[in-house]
Amino acid sequence: MRDLIKSERAASEALSFLLMLGILLASGAGIFIAGKPLIENSQRSIHFLEMDESFVLLAQNLDKVGYDRGPVRVTELKEKGGTISIVQGSIMTVDGTPFPMNSLEYTYENKTVAYENGGIWTKYPNGAVIVTGKPRITIGNVTAITIIELMGDDSIGGEGLFRVSAKIYFSKFIPIMPSGSTVQLSIKSNYYSGWADYLAEEGASDISLDHANQTVNANITVNTLNVNRNQVLVNIL
Description:
Residues 1-6 have low confidence and may be disordered. The protein is built from two helices and 14 strands. It is an alpha+beta fold.
C-alpha cells in the first residue's frame, strides 16, 4: 500500500514538473516571439549609428584630399544592408555662378548619413537634418568658400566590407568680384534645411527655404570673396 502511495506521489510530482516546464517553455517562446522585433530593430539602429560614426573617419580622409590636396586616401567601412552611393545634383551657387558639389550617401531603412562639401549630414524619416560635421565657409570681410565636388557614379549595396578611395582631380582658385557688398548664396541639396542652420550660425542673413526645390537662399556681406574649387575623384570598391 505504501509503495502504491509513493508511486502515485512520484507520478504526480513528475506530472507537475512537466506541466511547469511546459509553461516555462511556452512563456519563453512567447517572450522571444514578442521581443524579436524589438531586438532586430535595436540591432538595425545600432548599425546605422555605427555607420554614422564611421562617416567621421571617412570625412577626415575626404577632407585631407578635398581641402588639403593630400595623396590618395582609402577608407574601409562595414555594411550590413543598405546602399552607399555617389549622388549627383547638389549645387552651390555663389553670386550667380553655379558650382556642383554632389554627395556620398549611405541610406539604410529611410535614414541617410552623407558627406557633402565637407559636412556630415544625417537625415531622418521625418525630414529632420542633423549636422554632425561642418563645412569650411568663412564669412567676413574676406569670405572664403571651399567647394568640394565629388566625381563618380559608383553605388554598392548589400553586406560586407567595402572601400572608398579618393584622390584629387582638379583644383582652382577663383576670385569673385561682387557688384556690391552683399552676395547671394544659394544651395540646392537634399540637406538644405541643415545648410540653413549652418549658414545662420556662420552669420548669413535673409535666409529663406524653397521646399519645393530643396534649396536654401541667403545673403552674405563681403568685401572680398574667394572660391576654392576642388574636384575629387571617388571610387567605391
